[in-house]
Amino acid sequence: MRVLAAMSGGVDSAVAAARARDAGHDVVGVHLALSAKPATMREGARGCCSVEDSHDARRCADVLDIPFYVWDMAARFTADVVEPFVAEYAAGRTPNPCLRCNERIKFSAVLDRALALGFDAVATGHYARLEHGVLRRAVDPDKDQSYVLGVLDAGQLAHAMFPLGDSHKSEVRAEAARRGLVVAEKPDSHDICFIPSGDTRGFLAERIDAAPGELVDAASGAVLGRHEGVQNFTVGQRHGLGLDRPAPDGRPRYVLGIEPVSRQVRVGTAEALEVTTLRADAPLWHGEPGVVEDVVVQVRAHGGLASARVAVDGDGLRAELATPLRGVAPGQAVVVYDGDRVLGSATIAAAA
C-alpha cells in the first residue's frame, strides 16, 4: 500500500513510519505545519509543531530513506481546532482539542488530501490498535490513546494505521535508538500544543472579552464573590476560584456548574461533584443503536472510567453509571468500551 506517515517530530511517529516501511509499504513522510508562528509553539517539552520539530521529522525521514514533505495546515487548524476551543470555553464548556485535531485535521483534512493523492492509508504514532476495522485499546495502558481516536468513523478507520498499538513506550524508545533516530530520547510534548506556556487562562483572556459574573454557593445560593469570565472555569476545578474565605466547615470548594447566560459559576463540595447519569449529543456509534449493558465509559483522556449501561439512538446517548464519576464537564467526550473495543463516542451535554 501507499502510506502517508504523519511525522510530528517525536519518537512515536518516527517509529510508526519506520514500522510501516518495514512492513513493505511505500511510505512518504509528512509534517503538519499547524501554526502561522511555529517558533512560538514549543517551550521545553511543552507544545509541538515548532520549526525544531519539523527539522527532527526531516532528519528521521532521511535516516529511514523515505520522501518527506511539509504540509501547511495552519489556517485549517485555526478554523477547526483553535477557534472552536475558544468558543467552547466562552460558552461554559470544556473541549478536548487533541480529540478534535484527530477528527478534523489528521483524519479529515490530511486523510482527504492523502486519498486524493493516491495514498491508501495514513499512519500515525498513536497508541491504539486496529483489528479488522475495529478500534481497540493499546497494549500499553499508560499510553493508550484510543479515547482521543474514539471520534473516528468507520470510513476513517478503514484508512488508518497505528503501528505502535502492540508496543510499550519503553520498547518504542529502544527501537528508535537502535535505528539511529535522533528523537529516541526526545521528551514527549505535554499540555495543549497551541498553548505551549500552559497558561490556558491567559490564552483565553486574549481572545474572549471579560464578562464578570458571580460565584455562588450551590447549596445555599449565597453569593461568595465575583469572577472575570466563565471561560476561566471548568467543572471539577478547585484552584484559582478567587474566593477570599473557606467554606464554613473548612473544606475546599469545587466548581459544580457554569451558567454562561447568567454568568454564574456554582461551587460546592467534592461530594456534590458526583454524577451517576450522562447525557451526550451527536453519537458516533459502531453498530446498531440500542441498549448495551456492562460496558465501560471514559470521560477523560486519562482516567474517568466507570461501568455503565448505555442507551443510544439517532439523536443522543444516555449512560447510567454503576459508580459515580466526579468532574464531568459538558463539552468533554464520552467514549464507550466493550472490553478493549471502542463501541462509539458522543459529546457530553449534561450530567447529574
UniProtKB/TrEMBL annotation:
Record-annotated tRNA-specific 2-thiouridylase MnmA-like central domain positions: 202-268
Catalytic machinery residues: 101, 193
InterPro entries: MnmA-like (IPR004506), MnmA-like_C (IPR046885), MnmA-like_central (IPR046884), MnmA-like_central_sf (IPR023382), Rossmann-like_a/b/a_fold (IPR014729)
Enzyme type, top EC level: transferase
Keyword list, A-Z: ATP-binding, Cytoplasm, Disulfide bond, Nucleotide-binding, RNA-binding, Transferase, tRNA processing, tRNA-binding
UniProt KW tRNA processing keyword: yes
Coiled coil: none
GO molecular function annotation: tRNA-uridine 2-sulfurtransferase activity
Catalytic activity: S-sulfanyl-L-cysteinyl-[protein] + uridine(34) in tRNA + AH2 + ATP = 2-thiouridine(34) in tRNA + L-cysteinyl-[protein] + A + AMP + diphosphate + H(+)
Protein name (database record): tRNA-specific 2-thiouridylase MnmA
Organism: Actinomycetospora atypica
